[in-house]
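Subject: Protein entry, chain in single-letter code together with its fold tokens

Area: Proteins and the way their chains fold up in space.

Attached in line: The record itself begins immediately under this heading.
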Amino acid sequence: MVVKNQSDSTDNAETLTNIETFIEVYKYALKKATSPLIKTFLMGLAAGLFIGIGYIGAIYATRGWTSSLPVGIKNLVFGMVFTIAITMIIFMGGELFTSNSMMFLGAVKKQVKVNRLLLNLLIVLIGNFVGCGIISGFTALSGFCDDKDFLNNAISVFNHKLEMPWWQTFFSGILCNFLVAGSVYIAHSTKSSTAKFLLISLVIMVFALSGFSHVVANSYVWFLGPIFNLYGHNVSFSQFLQFGYQNQLPTLFGNFIGGGILLPGMYYIMYKKNLPNPITL
């Protein structure tokens, strides 16, 4: 692949250069810092709803698969279906804790206040959790849990995440946000909607089929835990709490490090000598 120089770019070009893409991603992160908090919450709510819907589709698509089938095929189908969630967020609008973590670079460059960064991340995370919680409730009310194969598949996902040691979820969270924040990053490299869709789908498919830990996606499964009790599968309050501190908390920090520090930081170091100072909206 031939990478164009920055000077080769034109305003009409569909594909941006690497440094132009970084600048657009940085501006995207800066805009989040100026967004009204009520909008941040509602956009977080929308993203949580979309993530939950994507999870329903992925669990439903892979329900009832027997052990005789290659597990890789099941994971591939799961990943392909789940891409609808991030596609809806990118094209319809929505904010995730994972992508908002990229605001950290603005805080390092002192263009975003630290208290604004923390408040934004808290508000968007609450919105994400509320959205996923709503969809978890709708999962039961819509009759999905009446399908034994769907229920068993969902319980299997819950148990798998519950049993993961915290250090695995932490590093899995780092890998996860390389891809989720990376999907937002790569979407800024082109102005073509078709190209955006294909690029996002490829990146998110790898995240979903690999089972990397995403604090928002995990929350959908987390909130399903108490609902399982209505269908004869006991999930105690202690197990619900265990999921929170053993899975969600390490995933939260892993996601922030992966998408807030390592991914944007790596590209900032590469391009910082050629960036305008400051980068303005």
User: Anything to note?
Assistant: The two ends are 30 Å apart (CA to CA).
